[in-house]
Amino acid sequence: MVKGTYDVVIAGTDLPAVIFGALAAKKGYRVLVLGHGSDKNVYEVNGYLFVRRPCSLFGLSDSAPIRNVFKELALSSEINNLLQHVSPACQVILPDARVDVSLQREVFTREIEREFPGQFKTLESIFGEFEDVERLLEPVLATAPVLPPGSIREWFAYRNSNKALSSLLSKTGTDALEPLSAYPRLRSFLAGPTSAMSRLAEPWKAPIPFVRLISHMRSGPVFVEWGEDTLKKLFLARINDNSGDVRGADSVDTLVVKRGRVQEVEILNRAESIGVGMMVCGDDLHSFLPLIPQRQAKRRYHAKIEAKTPSHYGITLNLGMRRSGLPEGLAHMAHIISDPTKPMHGSNLLTIRIDPAMPPIEGQDPSKVTLSVTALMPANRFNGQAAPIQEFADEMLVQLKRLLPFLDEHLEVADVSSIKLDEKTGLPVLERTGLIEIYPEIENRSIDLMTWPVRTAYKNMLNLANYTAGPLGFEGAFVAAQVAFNILCRQFELKRVM
């Protein structure tokens, strides 16, 4: 029995989905958010606050798509009060150099000239070309065009955006870092941080988003207490404030599909069905599509999604240690590159974040510190079990000890966010919420901005899992949410809205 109908039903609380839900609720759509098994990003182990997926808040203070969302939701003042800028923006540690990415141009220039003698003019020339692309890219992102386009209206918008940018793509080619091929150390200085910021292993092969990542790298991340969990809380509160409902404990059991549209959602462990106007997957689409009965499923589409597999997985090793074990001068975020001539994945590139849960400073124990160490594990090493992840985490730890040679003396607890102990057997098993999926293929006709389309083969189902953020990383979550919101407004016009 249907016990109610909502204009929008969201299953899962991935960041793009809750941003979209807040925008829809503000517009007047009746929105229901089902937790669908989602967990908070921050969790505790032996008194230390760890994160399942480290979050770097790049672009939060200077991105038009992000700024537009907060303005639309009347959150600009609230978020500005929460922001704390981090300086230096990050640190790149090479075998023979340690470079601070300073927000002050003079300091940054001195850093480059000291560590890369005679190469600053080359870097400055590349930055100049990137700034030309950036000036055209910003207004394109601000409009959140639907990518890939579907309707004639969307095709015209795509054509105009593509035309505006294509003339400048020739300057960057298919490898935005090709001009630095003769300078592997300098190339790795840009490649390492952007690889960590993006949801691509090699973002420089997608020049347009790469330009954006470089801009965010130079302007630096910001600090918000409790990080992504705080942002989600703000968006979920806006849904509640605008007559929406958030039911964090409920999950979808079955999706009832008729004539290619999701008609109803049956709630797990409840004798309850909910009518649906627009269905949104805010979780992994691979695990969501099987909730549609086989006889109602679009089998070719399901097979296509099943065949879409990651090239890498982001693995996070969380460490709780005594603060006295930190090297002096280590930045809040540091990228450790073992060999600048090798690919920026595996244990060759480690990204360290200090206190990644971003707890309030006054609430921290000054004698203790938490580190998250993240690296990209090639997918061919993963068999769906916990053992290869643990082996990879052990390799990460070996590399980390080159920077922290006395780590063992100060380490108190270590935890891999994608591994948990089975409650029945006590053996380590996979914890998928801690895995970060990195997909290699850029969607056609997406101006290189999407690795997954927001639309699905079902007429009223959208995909807003974390990986729809694509190459733009954190900013991409806001872009994907606004793309989905544009689709909703065109496809599902509210009769009660004048």
List keywords for this structure.
8-stranded mixed beta sheet; single chain; 24% strand; 498 residues; 7-stranded mixed beta sheet; alpha+beta
Tell me about this structure.
Helix content is 36%, strand content 24%. By secondary structure, it is α+β, with helices and mostly antiparallel strands. Strands 7, 8, 14, 15, 16, 17, 18 and 21 form an 8-stranded mixed beta sheet that branches. Strands 1, 2, 10, 11, 12, 13 and 22 form a 7-stranded mixed beta sheet that branches. β15 and β16 (346-354) form a beta hairpin. The protein is globular and about 65 Å long.
Strand content: 15-25%
Mean pLDDT: 92
Using the alpha-carbon principal axes, give the shape.
globular
Query: What structural class is derived from the secondary structure elements?
Result: alpha+beta
Main sheet record: 8 strands, mixed
What is the radius of gyration? 22 Å
Write the layout of secondary structure elements.
Blueprint: E1 2-11, H1 15-27, E2 31-34, E3 42-45, E4 48-51, E5 57-58, H2 64-72, H3 76-82, E6 84-85, E7 90-94, E8 97-101, H4 105-115, H5 120-143, H6 152-172, H7 184-197, H8 207-219, E9 221-223, H9 227-241, E10 245-247, E11 252-258, E12 261-267, E13 273-281, H10 285-288, H11 299-307, E14 312-322, E15 333-337, E16 346-354, E17 368-378, H12 386-403, H13 407-410, E18 411-416, E19 419-421, E20 428-430, E21 436-438, E22 461-463, H14 474-491
Parallel strand pairs: 1-2, 1-13, 2-10, 7-15, 13-22
Antiparallel strand pairs: 3-4, 5-9, 6-9, 7-8, 11-12, 12-13, 14-17, 14-18, 14-21, 15-16, 16-17, 19-20
